[in-house]
Design goal:
The chain has 687 residues and is of the alpha+beta class. The protein is built from seven helices and 39 strands. It has an eight-stranded antiparallel sheet with strand order 20-18-17-19-21-29-39-32.
Length: 687
C-alpha cells in the first residue's frame, strides 16, 4: 500500500518551491535582461555597419571639412537595402523607428559613425522604396546660444535614381505651432522639418534646435583695492563692480570673505545666471595708512622720503598733491615731482606752494630697461630709445653684464646677450649690491643758501662746504672746489632730516639714465634740450625767477615736469670711479681721454649729436671723504663718460691739492677750464 504526502508535508514542499522560485527568478530575469541588452548592442553594431556601407556608396554626400557632420536616418539605411525592414529593438520588441539618427563626422582623414540609439519616434515606421532619400547637414540635435544667431545648415536630398533634389522645403515649429524661424531671444526648443518630393513621394527629416545658455556672466572689478581704515568702515563692496550676461537678465552678485576688521583681506565675488553658469573673481583689499595713486604705465611708484612731499602743477602754481589721486603720468610725460620745504614751512594736501617756500626739488626716475641699439659700438643715428618700466626690483632684460674693465677696449667678456634688439636693465638702478625701484634726481643744479657764492667767484668763504638748495631761477653753486661740492651734497641728508635716503653727487650712470628716459617716448624724445648760449649768468631753468615755467624746452620732458638743464650748457661734475682692470686708481685723466673703454653699451642720442656713456660699473660704496684724491678714500661711482662731436664728458685733468682730479668727470672738456666754474647735481636713492 502506497503512502501519500500528508498535508503538512505537501505544504512544506510548496513553501520550499516558493523559496527556490524567489531565489531563481531574479537571477533568470537578470540573465534575460542582460541577453536583451547584448542583442540590442548587436543591433546597434549592425546599424553602424549598414551606415558604413551607405557612406561608401554615397561618398559624394559626405562632409569633407574637418569636424563636418551629416545626419542620416534608419529609414535611409532601409531604403538602401543595408538593413532589414523589420529590424526590432530586442528590449521592447518593437520596430526600431525610421527616424532614428546616425551621425557621420569627418575627423582626421577618416569618418566617425555614431548611432544615436535613443533618438527617433514611433509615429510612422513605414517606407516606400520610390520615396527620395533626405539627410541632414550637421547634427540632428543642435544648440544656439541665447541672444545668439542660428545658422541654417540645411539638408541634402536625392531621388531613387541618385539624382540630387534642389527643392527642399523647410518648416520651423515651436511645439505644434508653425513659426517663421528660430528666435534665440528666449529659452525654447524648435523642430526644423526638411521635406523633399520626387515621383509623387515625399520624405521628411527633422532637426531639433535647442536655445540654451552656456556662457558665464562677465564680471568686472579691480584686482586690488587700497583702503584706509576710515574708508573701510563705509566701503561698499559692489562699488565699481559690474556684471553683464549674454542672456540680458539681471544677475545678482554674491560676496564672501569681507569684514570690517582693519586687516588685508581677499574678497570673493560670484555671479551666476539662471542657467547656473557662474563666474568667480577675487579682489585683494589692502588696508593702508595713505592710499597712493598708481599710473598705468607700469612704472614703480615714487618712494617719498622723510620730509619730502609730492607736488602737482595746476597750470599756474604748484600744489601739495593728493597721492591717492593722479599726480604724475608717464604716458603724458608728466614725471613725478617732490620737494622738501624750508624749515618752519608747513603745508597740507591741496595747498599752493610757492618757489620761495621750497628748499629742494626732485624728480623721480623709475626703474626701466631699454632695448639695445648700439651693441656693435659703431656709429648709430639719432633715434628714440625703446624703454619699458620694470616692476619692483626685478631685472627682466636678457642682457647681463659683469664688473670688468679692459684698457684694450675688448669688451667681449663684459656682457652676455648684448645683441641689438635685446633688453638691458639700465645699470643706474643698481646701487652697490642693492637694486633700486628708482631714484630721485635733482630737478635743477645745486645752489647754496649763500646767494653770493652762487654768483661771485671771488666772494669770501665760498670755497667751502655750504648748505645746499636745489631751486629754479638762481645761479648754481659753481664757485667751490669739487671736494666741497661733494661734501655739501652728502650733507643734504643731515641738513634736511632725510634719514631714509642716500644723498650724493650725481653718478655719471645716473646722469645717463635720465638722458635715456628723456630720449624715450616718456620724455622729449629725439628733440634737443634747449641751451641759450647767451645766458652768461648760468641760471638754472634758462633764466631767473619763475622763467622755468615758460622755458620748458630746457626740460627733459618738454614740459614743467622734467629735469632741467641737461644740455651742453650745464657743465656738470659727475662722480666717476677711475680705475683700470687691475684696480689701479687714476688721479687724472691719463689713459682715458683719448681711448675710453666701451662698457655696458650705455649710449644715448640727443639733438643732432651722438653720445656714449662708457665705462665700468663701480662698487658705489658709501665711504667717508677722508682722502678724496687717493685710491683708498672717497665715494666713487661708475667709470663712464659721454662723447660727442662737440660736447663731451672728460676726466678732470690737472692736479689740485683739494683732490679735484679724483673720480670726477665734467661735461664739455673745452669749457670751464678752471675747477671753480663747473656745477653739479644731487641725487637721492632710497635706503
Amino acid at each position: 500500500m502506497k503512502k501519500g504526502f500528508t498535508l503538512a508535508e505537501l505544504l512544506g514542499v510548496i513553501v520550499i518551491l516558493a523559496v527556490v522560485a524567489l531565489i531563481a527568478f531574479p537571477i533568470v530575469s537578470q540573465s534575460i535582461d542582460s541577453n536583451r541588452k547584448k542583442l540590442y548592442q548587436s543591433q546597434l553594431d549592425e546599424i553602424k555597419l549598414g551606415a558604413e556601407k551607405w557612406a561608401y556608396e554615397n561618398i559624394n554626400m559626405l562632409p569633407t571639412a574637418n569636424n563636418g557632420t551629416v545626419t542620416i536616418t534608419l529609414l535611409n539605411l532601409k531604403e538602401s537595402g543595408f538593413l532589414p525592414l523589420d529590424i526590432k529593438n530586442p528590449i521592447t520588441g518593437k520596430l526600431l523607428p525610421n527616424d532614428m539618427t546616425i551621425t557621420i563626422t569627418y575627423r582626421n582623414n577618416s569618418y566617425d559613425i555614431t548611432v544615436n540609439g535613443e533618438s527617433g519616434t514611433d509615429v510612422n515606421n513605414d517606407f516606400n522604396s520610390n520615396a527620395p532619400t533626405i539627410i541632414l547637414n550637421g547634427e540632428a540635435i543642435t544648440y544656439v546660444e541665447i541672444k545668439g544667431t542660428y545658422s541654417e545648415l540645411g539638408a541634402i536630398a536625392k531621388d531613387k535614381d541618385g539624382n540630387l533634389i534642389d527643392d527642399i522645403s523647410i518648416t520651423y515649429r515651436e511645439g505644434s505651432t508653425e513659426v517663421g524661424g528660430i528666435d534665440a531671444s528666449r529659452f525654447t526648443t524648435y523642430s526644423v522639418v526638411y521635406s523633399a518630393t520626387s515621383n509623387g513621394y515625399t520624405s521628411n527629416i527633422t532637426r531639433t534646435v535647442i536655445v540654451r545658455d552656456t556662457t558665464a556672466p562677465v564680471l568686472s572689478l579691480e584686482d586690488t583695492t587700497e583702503l584706509t581704515k576710515d574708508e573701510l568702515a563705509s566701503f561698499n563692496l559692489l562699488a565699481g563692480v559690474s556684471v553683464t550676461d549674454n542672456s540680458g537678465e539681471t544677475i545678482n552678485i554674491q560676496t564672501s570673505g569681507f569684514d570690517r576688521l582693519p586687516t588685508d583681506k581677499i574678497v570673493e565675488y560670484k555671479a551666476c545666471d539662471s542657467s547656473n553658469n557662474c563666474t568667480t573673481k577675487r579682489r585683494i583689499i589692502k588696508i593702508v595708512s595713505v592710499k597712493e595713486y598708481v599710473d598705468n604705465s607700469g612704472a614703480n611708484k615714487p618712494k617719498l622720503l622723510a620730509n619730502m612731499i609730492p607736488i602737482k602743477y595746476n597750470g599756474s602754481s604748484w600744489v601739495y598733491a593728493d597721492v591717492s589721486e593722479e599726480w604724475y603720468d608717464y604716458n603724458s610725460k608728466e614725471w613725478a615731482n617732490a620737494v622738501v620745504l624750508n624749515s618752519g614751512v608747513t603745508k597740507s594736501v591741496g595747498n599752493t606752494i610757492s618757489e620761495s617756500e621750497i628748499a629742494l626739488w626732485y624728480v623721480w626716475i623709475p626703474r626701466y630697461k631699454y632695448q639695445l641699439f648700439n651693441a656693435n659700438n659703431g656709429s648709430v643715428s639719432v633715434q628714440q630709445i625703446n624703454v619699458t618700466f620694470e616692476t619692483g626690483t626685478s631685472t627682466t632684460g636678457t642682457v647681463r653684464c659683469v664688473d670688468k674693465v679692459s684698457k684694450s677696449g675688448n669688451d667681449s667678456e663684459i656682457c652676455t646677450n648684448a645683441i641689438n634688439g635685446n633688453w638691458y636693465t639700465h645699470p643706474a638702478f643698481t646701487f652697490g649690491d642693492k637694486d633700486l625701484t628708482g631714484f630721485w634726481m635733482g630737478k635743477f643744479e645745486v645752489s647754496t643758501t649763500n646767494s653770493t657764492c652762487n654768483s661771485t667767484p671771488s666772494a669770501t668763504n665760498c670755497n667751502k662746504e655750504l648748505p645746499i638748495t636745489i631751486k629754479p631761477g638762481v645761479s648754481s653753486f659753481r664757485y667751490a672746489s669739487i671736494a666741497n661740492q661733494f661734501n655739501s651734497i652728502r650733507n643734504i641728508e643731515t641738513d634736511y632730516g632725510i634719514s631714509n635716503g642716500d644723498s650724493h653727487m650725481t653718478k655719471n650712470m645716473e646722469w645717463g639714465a635720465v638722458a635715456y628716459l628723456k630720449q624715450s617716448k616718456y620724455g622729449l624724445g629725439i628733440a634737443d634740450i634747449g641751451f641759450n648760449s647767451s645766458n652768461s649768468s648760468y641760471y638754472t631753468g634758462g633764466g631767473s625767477g619763475t622763467s622755468y615755467k615758460i622755458n620748458v624746452t630746457y626740460s627733459t620732458t618738454g614740459n614743467i615736469y622734467g629735469v632741467y638743464d641737461m644740455s651742453g650748457g650745464s657743465w656738470e661734475y659727475v662722480m666717476g670711479n677711475m680705475v683700470d682692470s687691475s684696480g689701479n686708481f687714476y688721479a687724472s685723466g691719463s689713459g682715458f681721454t683719448s681711448a675710453p673703454e666701451d662698457k655696458y653699451y650705455d649710449k644715448y642720442t640727443y639733438g643732432t649729436s651722438l653720445a656714449h656713456a662708457r665705462g665700468k660699473l663701480g662698487d658705489a660704496t658709501k665711504e667717508t671723504l677722508t682722502t678724496f684724491g687717493s685710491s683708498t678714500g672717497g665715494w666713487y661711482s661708475d667709470y663712464a663718460y659721454f662723447v660727442s662731436a662737440s660736447d663731451s664728458w672728460f676726466p678732470r685733468s690737472g692736479s689740485y691739492s683739494d683732490g679735484s682730479s679724483a673720480g670726477v668727470f665734467y661735461f664739455n672738456g673745452s669749457r670751464g677750464s678752471t675747477y671753480g666754474s663747473v656745477s653739479s647735481r644731487a641725487v637721492i636713492t632710497p635706503n
